[in-house]
Amino acid sequence: MTRASVPWTPPREPEHGVFASMIAWSASRIYDLAKPIVTRGAGLLMSAAVVGTMLLVWANRLVFDYVDGLLMAPGIEVPAGHVVGQTLSWAEFSDAIASRELPGLLAPLLFPLQFGLTRELIGMVAIVSFVSLVAMFGIWWERKVAGRIQSRTGPMRVGGWHGWAQTPADGLKLITKEDLIPADADRILFRLAPYLAFVPALVAFLALPFGTYYVVRDLDVGLIFILAMLGIEVLGVILAGWASNNKWSVYGAMREACQMVSYEIPLGMNLLIPIMCAGALKLTTVGDLQDGGWFTWLAFRTPFTFIASLAYCVAALASCKRAPFDLPESESELVAGFHTEYSGFRWSLFFFAEYAAMFAVSALATILFFGAWYSPLPMSWAPTGTGLGDRFVQGLFFNGPLWFVGKCTFLLYVQIWIRWTLPRIRIDQVLYSCIQVMLPLAMVLLLGNTFWLLLDHPGNSMFASFSKGVSVVLGLIGMAVMFGLVGIVLYGRMNRRRLVGTLARDLLAGS
Amino acid sequence: MPSRLMIFLLGSMLAVGSVALAQEAGEVEVIAPPAEPVAVAASSPVDVLLHDGLFYLFAAVAVVSSLGVVFSGNIVRTATWLFGTLGAVAALFFLMYANFLGAIQLIVYAGGILILIVFGVMLTSKSPWMRFNPKPAEVFGGCVVCGALLVTLISILLRTNWSAAARPRETSHSVADFGQALLTDYLIPFEAASVLLLAVMIGAAFLARPEK
């Protein structure tokens, strides 16, 4: 009578790709070996890794500077026929190393570092690793923040300390998934589309400065280049929707593309406003303008840049298709979105692209509005020497990629926070708010800022002092917001037992 | 409709051909060699090799993508090949140190016009696979026009003075120079272009008006 008398045999598993199997096998072996250390000391290890990376980047900069200055020190005889600034030949280089009384082993190691090509290769490797780390970290952090906002804890098990290895574990799973392409889909375009979405986000980082001298290519049109790259992502989205051979994917992709393209206009116009204050499209120039501490940040320069910073943040959220403008992604929960038919590694490429774009727009906001890589302390308080200790203090407290990445991380956190707090809005509301609210606002800000800057020059002393006063007031408003935020965080921390929901109360007690 | 197109193409062919003939007669110096000898940046053989290699690479990508645009049967793939062409041309601009032009090419062409083309193609095509059935007269007219254009272009290319001094300069015009030029020397084309954009926007708003 029962069907249970026939034993159920599972269907034969499909063959995994060789490459994917190798990666999965080696990763699980490494994890088994490292498990005792990792699960116990994961928090410590992660902080050590972060500090180690920062020191590595700093050491890199020191080595580059040293190689640059190898012939500049007094007492070193410049070989005849050598043009200062040109690369040295091997003989000249080893002579310079020997005359500085350094071990001869350093010469072959440091010799390739003279050439621009080597430095650019190092820069590209750094960018690819950084973007991957940002995406991994962003995904994990989003899940933790989402959990806490929803009175639960988020990933807790994988890897030990707060589930830090969740994202690599998910990545391994996605690599080993079956490679599904829908039956009548356009196979070539289906395979191409994730790369068209991901690669521009990666290339945008080539022109993104992390510090005054920490940039792969300091383009004089850096801002326009980054905007161009963020605009090419739309093509990847459209092709993904089309190539899925799925009506709802096409509709989702169209709405998505429409939203991204429409919001590029207020995005660009709001970015032009601090560019007007700076007078250059070169991002390092704009960043270096804000080295005088909190009150010289371009967000507080005129009331129009203040509002523009907020309007830019809104437009950036919409352009990245983040909440509350994530209707295309929510459609993927309800009906379909552009990446419905994507599974496995291709899907994760779309998510990498999203987090890379989130970081890129946060980075643009930081550079153009919120002080770039300078701390709130003015540079005039910084030690001016070039010795190792002075540079360490400068990098830690005043100026450096540490501050830049910290500010971008904070803005990333704000984006995640807004996503899990606000409800999403409909597509007609999205487009209405773009064309009828954000665009006129951007135009008004542009005009207003033009007139303000026109009147604000040293010859017009009354307006100049008024402008300075307004700038100070705006800076104080900004400071109040920051301290308020810190106050709210402390209040939440002190009252965390009382505020959390009943389900997670016991779990949160020990964390 | 095809007759108007043919008239336009014939007229443009005549214009280009007359320009080529005039240059041969030496009365109009259309492609002039640079006035002052431009300084070539001191570069190592590796740099020159890389520069030339990348040039050939991107030029090959541009040519192959253009052929893909013409010979592809699927209309969406045509648009994708077009993206390849536009991207390769932007890369060539960057190789010539014309950063501003390269970035604008990417924003306007690859990020604007191409997306518009893809939208139009996707939303209006009945099926992605196109079938063209041209009449023999159209084929003959097309071959004549394109052949004339080819001859004209090749004659212009062979007559240009591609001397070594025509290598791209290490330092291009800065964006500030562009801005100055746009607002002083080239003010009238600038304003004419903005009036054209205004007309386009008014036309689009009118076409998209809600039906009463």
Characterise this structure.
The complex is a heterodimer of chains A (511) and B (212). Chain A folds into two domains: 18-74 and 88-118, no CATH class; 179-455, no CATH class. Chain A has 18 helices and no strands. The longest helix of chain A is centred in the N-terminal third of the chain and has 51 residues, at 18-68. With 511 residues, chain A is an all-alpha fold. Chain A has helices spanning 18-68, 90-99, 106-110, 116-149, 166-175, 187-204, 222-243, 247-278, 283-288, 303-319, 327-334, 345-368, 388-398, 401-419, 427-455, 461-494, 496-499, 505-509. Chain B has two domains: 40-172, NADH-ubiquinone/plastoquinone oxidoreductase chain 6, subunit NuoJ (Four Helix Bundle (Hemerythrin (Met), subunit A)), CATH 1.20.120; 173-212. Chain B has seven helices and no strands. Chain B has helices at 2-25, 45-71, 75-95, 99-124, 136-159, 175-183, 187-207. In chain B, helix 1 packs parallel to helix 5 (136-159) and helix 3 packs antiparallel against helix 4. The longest helix of chain B has 27 residues, at 45-71. Mean pLDDT of chain B is 79; it is low at 26-42. At the A-B interface, helix 6, helix 7 and helix 8 of A face helix 2, helix 3 and helix 4 of B.
